[in-house]
Amino acid sequence: MLYNSxxxxxxxxxxxxxxxxxxxxxxxxxxxTGDRLSKIVDEACFLLADYNGRLAAELEDRxxxxxxxxxxxxxxxxxxxxxxxxxxxxxxxxxxxxxESLGLG
Length: 105
Fold this sequence. Notes:
This protein is mainly α. It contains 2 helices and no strands.
């Protein structure tokens, strides 16, 4: 069963609260109580392992997206530099055309 972050935090809190309220960690345990504690601990471990796996996947996704964005930004910077060079060439051509059309050259 999958939980979102908020519901997982609530669920883990409930599991821990249940264990503490029942003083499962303090009193000597009989077999039934020990089995209940084991089940609670196993459930908490499962929830946390699941959550940890989802966080790891999200971190991996964010790392991939970050690399993609960095590559995109670099590509845009390269295109901008190329366009600025073309603009300077075009300005030079335009200036020479203006000079010739005015008969100054």
